[in-house]
Amino acid sequence: MIFLDDTDKKILNTIQFGFPLETEPYKKLGDELGISENEIIERLDRLHDEGAVRKIGPIINRRGVGGTSTLVAASVPEEKVDEVAEYINEYHEVSHNYHRPEKFNIWFTISAANRERIDTILEELHEKTGVEFVDLPTKKLFKIGVRFNIK
Amino acid sequence: MAENLDDIDEKIIKMTQNGIPLKKSPFADIASKLGISEQEVIDRLKKMQEKDIIRRFGASIGHRDIGIVANAMCVWNVPDERTEEVGTIMAGFSEVTHCYERPRAPGWDYNLFAMVHSYTKEDCEEVAARISEATGIKDYKLLYSDREFKKTGVRL
């Protein structure tokens, strides 16, 4: 596990939502947090290397760009989980894929340009793996806003 | 493919979706490749945010790596006529990061999904118990992820 000091935590809690969209964002961030631009860049470089920051970029709304998404569950024998997960991960449209130790043990999300593409992916995956996939498309979105309160 | 975006917007998303560089002017290379100013790159990103094409621009956190290891998908079996009301209550909990209504399926009775991320499973269970208390929904389960096969986020 990565050790974070108070300054790291302050930076991480700020840049999840408050990343300044400016030509020199790290300078602006430094001004806001009372740290030099160079130190911000050095710290982010380290936090990125260590895995605390995956990336800084746009979080895309698939519906907003004219597309759709779904959550898919599958019940796969444990000894086949890795193999099936690899087939799933091959698709660029798969954005998340997790193992959860339950009856349905593989859970993944597909975001695609349209519903037809999702159907095609699920059919192909079924042909490749023989697994039955349970398609759970969003009926209603009540909330989305991932923000980790880093303590 | 993406009818709400023009060609330049789409290129900007594709050039930033895997992360902008950690250097003083992170938008300079993109601007010069597209033949527009850095300010235009930024203005277009802001515009896409206003139009909700981009939900937010910021850091994606490797939450497992920093100790947020209890990631619970809380699933709830809510009577159909109460989903609207219950979903709204759940979304009001600050600990809930995502909340969706999804269809039931054979062998799957749960129709509301709420994600809770925390440092310990006990924390997640405590949040779920409070949600259950607030909504009166007793039929629920917490499904924790114990392995991450992929987490790239949505990409064009």
Write the layout of secondary structure elements.
The complex is a heterodimer of chains A (151) and B (156).
Chain A (H helix, E strand, L loop, with lengths): L5 H10 L9 H9 L3 H14 L2 E8 L7 E7 L6 H9 L4 E6 L6 E7 L2 H15 L3 E5 L2 E5 L7
Antiparallel strand pairs in A: 2-4, 2-5, 3-4
Helix pairs in contact in A: 2-3
Chain B lengths: L6 H10 L11 H7 L3 H13 L3 E8 L8 E7 L6 H9 L4 E6 L10 E7 L2 H15 L4 E5 L2 E5 L5
Antiparallel strand pairs in B: 2-4, 2-5, 3-4
Which descriptors would you attach to this protein?
heterodimer; A: 151 residues; alpha+beta; Alpha-Beta Plaits; 2 domains; 4-stranded antiparallel sheet; 5 helices; 38% helix; 25% strand; elongated; B: 156 residues; 24% strand; NirdL-like_HTH (chain A)
Structure description:
The complex is a heterodimer of chains A (151) and B (156). Chain A folds into 2 domains: 6-50; 63-137, Alpha-Beta Plaits. In chain A, 32% of the residues are buried. The radius of gyration of chain A is 19 Å and the shape is elongated. The mean pLDDT of chain A is 94. With 151 residues, chain A is of the alpha+beta class. Chain A has 5 helices and 6 strands; from the N terminus they run H-H-H-E-E-H-E-E-H-E-E. Chain A has a 4-stranded antiparallel β-sheet with strand order 3-4-2-5, covered by helices on one side. With 156 residues, chain B is an alpha+beta fold. Chain B folds into 2 domains: 8-15 and 25-58, no CATH class; 63-144, Alpha-Beta Plaits. Chain B has helices at residues 7-16, 28-34, 38-50, 83-91, 121-135, and strands spanning 54-61, 70-76, 96-101, 112-118, 140-144, 147-151. A 4-stranded antiparallel β-sheet of chain B has the order 3-4-2-5, with helices on one face. In chain B, helix 2 (28-34) crosses helix 3 (38-50). The radius of gyration of chain B is 20 Å and the shape is elongated. Chains A and B meet through helix 2, helix 3, strand 1, strand 2 and helix 4 of A and helix 3, strand 1, helix 4, strand 3 and strand 4 of B.
